[in-house]
Design goal:
This protein has 417 residues and is of the alpha+beta class. The chain is built from seven helices and 24 strands.
């Protein structure tokens, strides 16, 4: 059966504050469209639903926002089912004598908790960063342990809450985290560059390298561009389009090829010796078949970005003495390495449309096979990609239903590994 056609909305229920209910099949007449979003650079997923209600069904609920909503969408590839989502935005698009058309936006309750709560305590710098992440998720965002996947970090880290929102604290830790996992060959690694995001299954705090390594180990979905009728239409690619591939000058400016770093210590009033971290020295996992993209002019070996940073936090010691900041883990060195890792991952971006597949999640690795003109499979552009953003969309039209998944894919190196 076609992934493009087979979908059923089993439940859409809006619970009013005074006990009233708006329910699909009752006073919600029909749903016109559903869009569901995930991104590895967004802390939560989001729904946007366009619906038709008879007469003044939603007006009778006296919608104010923060109403709870239950959604269940059944598709051949899987089910999207959520209870207790929060109605955070709504607008009446059209009003007729017999019905009204509304657009509603739904978010998990975490977005409310993030606005209500602040980080006020000191987070001990003798405790692993991943432990702080778990505590913030449980204590401040009210997330159950079963609903989170937190990768262990190798480094301890600490900070003062400073009345930050929880999401800000999590992103602060992500930029400074160093993974405790090791590559398959057992060698050293620069596994920096953590991300925090939510999929339909869990909240995740993971390093880019672990996402890539684990993703390639598992059975991945393979999508194929065809110019003839396919034997596997549910895994066809439509409208592939590269948003960008290489932009050498911007990448040089944004630290993709490394940095020359030095630091001004506000305690000692000393400038540290300049240290170079180049792309050619990075030991990281890759999605393509090249460890390092060879470019001319020694760009990989000689970073062009110069960074000077005033710092105090690496000097913190419980006995009041000043740490030199030397050693394997230095938070600001890791920040520079993380910046390079993020830029490397985002150096190539491909947008594709595929038949709706509920099993896909932001952060998954998939295999893409693209056509080379008059030559079959393009070995340079094809290969593993990581899902940066996805949008599952369902549209009900006069000629039937259409279900697609729109993907923005990224990867660091070319080649079909």
């Amino acid at each position: 059966m076609s992934y493009i056609k087979n979908v059923i909305i089993r439940d859409l229920t809006i619970l009013g504050k005074e006990g009233e209910i708006a329910k699909l099949g009752d006073n919600i007449t029909t749903v016109l469209s559903v869009d569901y979003y995930e991104s590895i650079f967004e802390p939560t997923f989001q729904f946007e639903i366009v619906l038709v209600s008879n007469e003044d069904a939603l007006s009778d609920l006296k919608l104010r926002g923060t109403e709870r909503v239950n959604v269940e969408i059944e598709h051949q590839s899987g089910t999207l089912e959520f209870d207790n989502l929060v109605l955070t935005s709504f607008v009446q698009n059209e009003s007729l004598s017999t019905s009204n058309i509304f657009t509603i936006r739904l978010d998990p309750t975490t977005v409310i908790e993030n606005e209500k709560n602040r980080l006020t305590q000191k987070y001990d710098n003798k405790i692993k960063a991943s432990t702080h992440v778990e505590n913030i998720l449980k204590t401040n965002l009210k997330i159950d342990e079963d609903d989170m996947e937190v990768e262990e970090t190798a480094n301890n880290d600490g900070f003062f809450g400073n009345y930050w929102r929880p999401f800000k604290g999590l992103y602060w830790l992500a930029r400074r985290a160093l993974s405790a996992s090791m590559p398959e060959d057992g060698s050293g690694s620069d596994r920096v560059g953590f991300l925090f995001w939510q999929t339909k299954s869990k909240y995740k705090f993971k390093s880019i390298d672990t996402m890539i390594t684990d993703g390639k180990k598992e059975d991945v979905f393979q999508y194929i561009q065809n110019d003839v009728i396919s034997d596997t239409p549910n895994f066809d690619i439509y409208n592939p389009s590269f948003e960008y591939d290489q932009d050498i000058i911007d990448q040089m400016k944004n630290s993709m090829y490394g940095e020359n770093r030095s630091y001004f210590n506000l305690h000692t009033l000393q400038v540290t010796k300049q240290q170079s971290f180049s792309k050619s020295n990075a030991k990281q996992a890759h999605l393509g078949d090249e460890e390092l993209v060879e470019v001319d002019d020694d760009i990989n070996e000689n970073p062009t970005r110069v960074t000077r940073v005033a710092i105090t936090d690496f000097t913190q010691k419980t006995d009041g003495t000043i740490d030199s900041g030397e050693g394997d883990y230095h938070p600001h060195k890791v920040i520079s390495q993380s910046r390079m890792r993020y830029e490397t991952l985002l150096s190539r971006s491909l947008r594709i449309t595929v038949p709706c597949n509920i099993q896909l999640e932001a952060g998954d690795v998939i295999s893409v096979k693209l056509i080379k003109t008059m030559a079959g499979n393009d070995e340079w552009l094809s290969g593993f990609y990581l899902i940066k953003d996805l949008r599952h969309t369902v549209h009900f039209r006069d000629n039937g239903v259409q279900c697609y998944t729109y993907l923005r894919l990224v990867r660091d190196t070319p080649g079909d590994a």
